Amino acid sequence: METVEIKNIKLSNGIDFSMIGLGTFRNADDKKMFIEAVKYAIKIGYRHIDGAWLYGIEDAIGQAVREVIEESNGSLKREDLFIVSKIWNTFHSRGEARKCLDEILNNLATPYVDLLLVHWPMGFAENLGLGPFPKNEQGNRLYSDVHFLETYHALEDFVKEEVLDNCEIKPVNNQIEITPYLQNKNLVEFCQKNGIVVSAYGPLGAGQKSTTRPDLPVLLENEVLVKIAKKHEKTPAQVCLRWGIQRNIVMLPKSITPKRILENAQIFDFELTDEEMQEISKLDQNYRVYGVEMLANHKYYPFHQD
């Protein structure tokens, strides 16, 4: 089996953070296929698995981790892996955040997670039994007034309880959507100046034509990326990922296809030139694939400006 060596970046607390992680959002309806994909990723060298309570598949992540460790005959341990999860919006108050973490740990069947994030800063109404996106009878979204700092203080409590392994009081990571069409230059610069490592979800775009921006080519079919990929004998996806790595951004591509899982990590054997980085920089459209504009009336909505 071909393997890969994935480079790390240091978090501000000194912990190594793999610069390529396996994204798991909407990754498979077939649980068995998803488990095999996670196991394959770990076997070839992935150590960073990005999950979340909302995704509803952390039990499968946990099963994959247990199986691959058992099959390794002692060569792989839980502490070799870096598992990320996220507190969902309906659990933003201090007590509810604890409930969410308990569910996460129970689903993963692990005593701790390595990094715990606040999924979004916008809190939703809690304890209504209306699912992760609660609405009233008129179809209006139901919000809470809980400030995201209260949720963050709950995370600080978890560190003291030793159920959250690699988190410090100072934020170490901010996960945001980043692609060549959404480069988030100001936010990335702010985070990096303040010692916060940025990681990128959805770094390869949606894989289909935008309904809101029909003028934009599908990201991986963009002629600039195709041209650069051809020059380096790589795929456009690998060029996107390499572009992010050269910005010191951790990239979280998702796939359940072994060939693509492998290719997504084979990006440390080439380098984009300054000219190529500039070409890609000019593709920025401030275009979000995973837009959350429907939450723009929330008092803590953060995207009114870049």
UniProtKB/TrEMBL annotation:
Signal peptide: none annotated. PROSITE patterns: ALDOKETO_REDUCTASE_1, ALDOKETO_REDUCTASE_3. SUPFAM superfamilies: NAD(P)-linked oxidoreductase (SSF51430). The keyword Oxidoreductase applies. The record marks 86 as: Lowers pKa of active site Tyr. Substrate binds at residue 119. InterPro entries: AKR, Aldo/ket_reductase_CS, NAD(P)_OxRdtase_dom_sf, NADP_OxRdtase_dom. GO terms for molecular function: oxidoreductase activity, acting on the CH-OH group of donors, NAD or NADP as acceptor. The active site is at residue 55. Keywords: NADP, Oxidoreductase. Belongs to the aldo/keto reductase family. This is NADP-dependent oxidoreductase domain-containing protein.
